[in-house]
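::Encoded backbone::
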Amino acid sequence: MKRFFAAAAILLLAAGISSAQTLNEAADLFEQGRTAFSDGNKTGAVDFFKKALDMAAQLGDEGESLVSDCKQNISNIQYSIVTGMGGEGDYDGAIAFLDEVVKTATEYGQEEVVEQCKDLLPNLYAGKGKTLFEAENFEAAIEALGKALELNPADANSAARLGQAFTKLDRLAEAKDAYLKAQENGLNVSKPLGNTVLKLAQAALKEKKFGEAYNLAIESAGYAENASAYQIAGSAAQQGKKFKDAIAAYEKFIALKPDAPAQIKYNLATCYKEAGNKAKAIEYYKMVTGDSKYGDNAKKLIQQLSQ
């Protein structure tokens, strides 16, 4: 019996020595991981920490603290690797690796890293979209920027860049929606938004959709006041026989451009005539009597209205 207890004691002592050796080896691997990280070898550091983790996990309670430190370091370093890839412009690689980082961080219970990854993903798509836009790959840029906005609808800069990409492809209605989203999220895009809506107004006028053209032109002027918007609004209203609206638009055009071309003044005079305001019609017809194209007809109309 004494021999049995002696043998058991020897086994327990051997197990204790083995456990201590394993913990020391795991600790050495952990320190090698820290050294690798300090030297800028992040991938190597992760490998060392994973080996230390596997070894420490075999020790139960004795290795619990080291296991926790390894998990935290692995997750944080992997996240750092992803951000570095994004910073170097490797957006596809970063996006692909981010899935692995989230999976590992989730398994290790590193919720803070998981949340950081969720916040990073839309930024990676935004960066990818910006790079593709600058490379004039507008279709691909639209896809990436759309994904960025899907993940972060408040990203005003991506919305504005999406508007630019749609404009480059002459997809004006979609460009308008993107610019509006940027505007709603606090970015001043009044000028490109106004220009986009102005192009939509021009297209509507060309298709003889006078009411739509007028409304779009006035909307454009509301974003960024410009004479061209009032010219289109005036023309659309005049052709749609909305003479009071046409008068208001043409008058605003002339207020912005006092040296307005003869055509605008002639059109304004005609609208006043159709609206029954002879005095104002004569006033504006007189402004173009010296014009080679409109002068003769303006003189005849002045004579008629003066009778």
In short: The longest helix spans residues 2-38. Residues 226 and 256 are 8 Å apart (CA to CA).
